[in-house]
Amino acid sequence: MDSPRPNDPLSETLQHWRVEPARDPGFRPAVWRRITQRSRDTWAGYVRAHRLAWSVAAIAVVGVAGWTGHTAAQARLAADRDAMVTAYLVELDPRVQAGLRP
Q1: Alpha-carbon distance 91 to 27, whole Å?
Q2: What is d(CA 6, CA 45) in angstroms, rounded to the nearest whole number?
Q3: Geometric angle at alpha carbon 75, from 71 and 81, rounded to 5°
Q4: Within-domain flag for 42
Q5: pTM over 0.85
Q6: For residue 2, what are the CA distances in angstroms to 6, 7, 9, 11?
Q7: Half-sphere exposure (CA, 13 Å, Cβ side) for 10?
Q8: Is 83 a domain residue?
Q9: Buried b / exposed e across 46-69, counting CB within 10 Å, b at 16+?
Q10: Alpha carbon distance 34, 11 (integer Å)
Q11: What is the pLDDT of residues 20-76, one digit of tens each?
C-alpha cells in the first residue's frame, strides 16, 4: 500500500483532530435511574413486553418436542413390530427358533 505524501492536508488534519464531547452531568444518574426502573419490572411484565419473541420460542419448543416424540414413537413402534414378527415366526416353525430368537 502506498504511504501518504508528506504534505497531504488530509493526513495532517487527521493527525491533529481530537474529539472532545461536552460532559453531561446527568448521564450517570440517568443510567442508574434506568437500571433501577428495569429492576422493578416483574417477570410477567418482561414477558408481556417481549411477547412476540416468547411466543415464537414457545412455538419452536412445542414443535421440536412434538417432532422428537413422534420420531421416538415411530422407532419404538418399529422395534415392537419386529419383536412381534419374530415371536410369530418362532411360534409357526419351531425348527427356526435358534436363528430367530431376539
Answers
A1: 85
A2: 61
A3: 140
A4: yes
A5: no
A6: 12, 14, 16, 13
A7: 3
A8: yes
A9: eeeeeeeeeeeeeeeeeeeeeeee
A10: 42
A11: 888 889 999 999 999 888 788 788 888 888 999 999 999 999 999 999 999 999 999
Could you give the C-alpha distances from 70 to 13, 56, 64, 65, 75, in angstroms and in order? 68, 21, 10, 9, 9
All residues at 6 or more sequence positions from 83 whose CB lies less than 8 Å from its CB, including other chains: 102
Q: Residue 60 falls within a domain, yes or no?
A: yes
d(CA 78, CA 84): 10
Number of compact structural domains in the chain: 1
Grid cell, residue 30, equals 440517568
Q: How many residues does the chain have?
A: 102
Determine, yes or no, domain membership for 8.
no
Backbone φ, ψ for residue 29 (5° rounding)? -60, -35
Q: Determine contact, residues 76/83, Cβ cutoff 8 Å.
A: no
